[in-house]
Amino acid sequence: MKKLLLAILLSAASLLSAIALLGTSAWLISMASTRPPVMVLEVAIVGVRTFGLSRGLFKYTSRILEHQGALTIQSNLRVRIYENFLAMKSSQLLDIRKGATLQQVVNDVETLQDLWLRVGSPWASALLAGCAGVSIAYYLLPSAGLVLGALFLFAALIVPIFSSFAAGSRQQRNLESEIFDEILQTSELVEESLVFGFSKDLITHIDERQNQIARIERTNAKKAGLGAALYTKWLGLTVVTMIIFALNAFRDHRLAGINVAVIILLPLAIFDGLSSLPVAFSHLAQILDARAALKPSLKKIVFENPVMQDHSYDHYILEILRVQPLRDGVTLPQFTGVAQPGHPLVIHGKSGGGKSSLLSALIGDIEFSGQVLINHDDLSHFDSNIFTTMLQDDHLFATSIRENIKIGNPDASDREIEQILEIVELADLVHSLPEGLDTLVGNLGYNFSGGEKQRIKLARMLMRNTPIYLLDEPFEYLDHFQADRLAKKVLKVLSTKTVVMVSHTY
Known about the structure:
By secondary structure, this protein is an alpha/beta fold. The chain has helices at about 1-30, 40-85, 90-95, 100-140, 140-165, 170-190, 190-195, 200-250, 260-270, 275-280, 285-295, 355-360, 400-405, 415-425, 425-430, 450-465, 480-495; strands spanning about 320-325, 330, 335-340, 345, 370-375, 375-380, 385-390, 470, 500.
């Protein structure tokens, strides 16, 4: 915010330099026509040079600060949105529309920064510089200064308000949200759409929405053009008014002849800061709509259990007492069991029996009834960082094997990674690849088989060092013999840890 305030002051200084430059130039030309001694013009000549250079310097510096401030705001907004998502439980995330979310993170955040960059800052700096310019006119000719001040305030207030009525943005915003949804749908269904021949229908729907948005934008552009036309007409009226005042004052000997041009030309420089406002304010409704859409995500995030007790246990005993995961429309069974170092808790059961939901409940993704104790203390008193999780839908990033595994421990060396690869029986495969650890995994692990992807996830999990491990089908996609070997190796590595494992194979 300090940068933005400083940027406004520097922008106002740039506009004021432009006003001073035009006024000084007008005086210099008028005075030079009387052929005075050169020394009389010397101060004005230096002033013209100074104002000409300072105008660009102030403007350049203000633009840097404006964009730094706006980009900082943009970054903070996105961080707040992600924090909001992080605080949500998985059941809440199910209600979120992907298109609306993408619009928030991309469009709305970038649109909201225009509130400062294109509306607030230019308007405030134009108002400051304009008032200073009007003061100069008032000093030279009070009656002209008062009229010029009234005309300027009208242009600074009424023209932006008139331009702001060029909205219709809520309809445009809804259409853009639909386009985001349909583009995401098209991207996710691209293979199916080509096979079953409905790709043209998806593209047609997107084109229809885009044409509707184009029509709205053309209408808004016409209305914004009316605001710009009003500004231009008002500027012309102001110049004509100043011509009348200046000539009458000169005739009545209330204004020196060398100042006539100054009074006439001052409005051109004073109004210059307002030239961009009609277009900027024509987008004000759209900006405010974006702000309203982002408002729920900009609330201060208060994470559950903000006060954590200081625990320093040698080992952790996890007790699950009649825990029933709570999902809308689904009744899941209760779970009871104990896990401690050297005695892992293995959960078996048919598919859809709530085993994965139990692990999600333990890490706080979904609500549950019953009680979870850690060393006879309630789960709510512990930070979620005591858990390492490996869930069925864990993500592999489209980067190298090394970077995917180092997510578990960013400080891990290649030697440590290779030791983990030996445990999960991937070392030989990685060594046989031309690029070794730098081999790209591909989007969603596309370059590797299901079993190889699962072992990369296992390696990443083993890189973590926490007291409790929650593993959901860690040996999926592996044949029975390899799954049995890996289970023994993994449980040996985690022999000093508390392990809860959902598995059909072990």
